[in-house]
């Protein structure tokens, strides 16, 4: 089962297909990561917490 590399939360195979970088089997951040986000192909700390 795929997991988020940042927080370890379960992510679906469909989520991985859409959001994982080419060649990776999992994602670097997921919607459950309130402190991180994807930006321009990178993962960075969020400037403010998501609600």
From TrEMBL:
<protein>
    <submittedName>
        <fullName>Small CPxCG-related zinc finger protein</fullName>
    </submittedName>
</protein>
<dbReference type="Pfam" id="PF24444">
    <property type="entry name" value="DUF7563"/>
</dbReference>
<dbReference type="InterPro" id="IPR055985">
    <property type="entry name" value="DUF7563"/>
</dbReference>
């Amino acid at each position: 089962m795929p997991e988020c590399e940042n927080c370890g939360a379960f992510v679906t195979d469909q989520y991985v297909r859409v959001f994982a970088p080419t060649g990776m089997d999992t994602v670097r951040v997921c919607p459950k990561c309130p402190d991180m986000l994807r930006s321009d192909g990178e993962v960075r700390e969020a400037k403010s917490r998501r609600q």
